[in-house]
Design brief:
Strand 3, helix 1 and strand 4 form a beta-alpha-beta unit. The relative contact order is 0.14. Strands 4-3-5-6 form a four-stranded parallel sheet, with helices on both faces. It is globular. It has twelve helices and ten strands. It starts with a strand and ends in a 6-residue tail after the last helix.
Length: 282
């Protein structure tokens, strides 16, 4: 038998801890022993653990965040919050009281480095302060972000002034988003291209070619210097850099902005601008 004290690796290094290894009773004819082990905090134990509350119908955010963040040592952990099939101001607002409960299900026994809520239009409808208050009920010390929080940070980093906006939303939701964007920075939304979809399941099925075409269309307008593709359910990881090459202007999206913001919040400053757009060089 080995000793009862084991070691674990943290971001600070190898340390001794009080975790116990229990002795195993011997079964006749079988030799048993307890193996020594070290601990490194698991997935994200080195760079950071990120908890994300995702909408029940979102098919895209988990995939794109994990694709970008996992190779850089960040662990992504998700829970779901109930969202109605149709995306309207009323259904977006209805999620407010459910965010905290969903966040509380993410690794409740561990501290997280970042907590995020994964809906752009709902964050604008509910308001960042209320979303952060809901997330803080899970852990007040974690850094917080949402897609709209990250987008506003991205606009500042890109020095955006005249934004061309691509969304899947209906008119009322677009109005809320545009007002929130313009109320929280010196920029203006000068042009909007929308797919005008009300069902979230349809949003997830919009082809990447359709998204590229819409982004190029708005980006080529003379009174646009930056393009923002809104909605975490639109697939944009493989779209943003291609559109930038076509129009020669910065492009970002809900998912790309949030991935970038999460990385910067935990001190990961890798330049991935060739793959995911200009923002990832900031």
């Amino acid at each position: 038998m080995f000793g009862s004290t084991v070691s674990r690796v943290t971001r600070i290094g190898l340390v001794s801890c009080g975790m116990k290894q229990f002795s195993m009773s011997s079964s006749k004819g079988i030799k048993k022993e307890t193996a020594p082990c070290m601990f490194d905090g698991g997935v994200g134990g080195e760079k950071g653990k990120v908890g994300v509350v995702v909408l029940s119908g979102d098919q895209t955010l988990e995939q794109e965040l994990s694709t970008i963040l996992l190779p850089h040592g960040l662990g992504c952990f998700f829970s779901r919050v109930k969202m109605e099939e149709e995306v309207t101001p009323e259904t977006l607002q209805s999620m407010k009281s459910m965010i905290s409960g969903s966040a509380g299900l993410i690794l409740p026994e561990l501290d997280l480095d970042v907590l995020a809520y994964g809906c752009t239009s709902a964050s604008a409808t509910i308001g960042e302060d209320e979303v952060f208050a809901q997330l803080s009920s899970r852990q007040s010390s974690a850094a917080k972000t949402t897609p709209i929080t990250a987008a506003l940070k991205a606009f500042s980093a890109l020095k955006a002034q005249r934004i061309g906006l691509v969304t899947p939303y209906i008119g009322e939701v677009n109005d809320i988003l545009i007002k929130y964007m313009e109320d929280n920075g010196p920029w203006k939304v000068t042009n909007l291209v929308s797919f005008n979809l009300i069902r979230d399941v349809d949003v997830a099925s919009v082809t990447m070619d359709s998204i590229k075409e819409a982004a190029v269309k708005v980006g080529e307008m003379e009174d646009v210097d930056t393009v923002f593709i809104s909605c975490t359910n639109l697939r944009t990881a493989m779209v943003v850099a291609d559109v930038e090459k076509t129009i020669g202007k910065p492009v970002t999206s809900s998912n790309m902005a949030m991935a970038w913001h999460i990385m910067r919040l935990v001190g990961v400053n890798a330049d991935m601008s060739n793959t995911y757009g200009t923002l990832f060089g900031k």
